[in-house]
Amino acid sequence: MNDLPVDDEFAWNQRERLWFGALAAARAAQLECDVLREVMVLSQAAWNRSRERLAELQALRDAFGEKTAA
């Protein structure tokens, strides 16, 4: 048994619960950030591929347009 008065023990328990709650919330936020970072990496790669494909298609369009005009 501890020697804390009831009010001090209650306050200690409340602080401990708040600390564990904050710890759990921080861990959840860190996991969310990790997932979002991975999504951003994958999105950036997909965007880069799409831009490359767009450039290729625009070059083909322009080449066909020049042949048609000639």
Description:
The chain is mainly alpha-helical and 70 residues long. It has a domain at 37-70. 91% of the residues lie in helices and 0% in strands. It contains one helix and no strands. The protein has one helix at 6-69. The longest helix has 64 residues, at 6-69. The protein is rod-shaped, with a radius of gyration of 30 Å. The relative contact order is 0.05. The model has no long low-confidence stretch (mean pLDDT 92).
Write the layout of secondary structure elements.
Blueprint: H1 6-69
- List how many beta strands DSSP finds: 0
On the 0 to 100 scale, the average pLDDT is 92
Distance between the termini: 96 Å
Low-confidence stretches: none
- The string of secondary-structure elements, in order, is H
Which structural class do you get from the secondary structure elements?
mainly alpha
> Shape from CA axes?
rod-shaped
Tell me roughly what share of residues is in helical segments. over 70%
Oligomeric assembly = single chain
Radius of gyration: 30 Å
Count of helical segments?
Answer: 1
Beta-strand percentage?
A: under 5%
- Describe the biggest sheet? none
Outline of the structure:
The chain is mainly alpha-helical and 70 residues long. It has one helix spanning 6-69. The longest helix is centred in the middle third of the chain and has 64 residues, at 6-69.
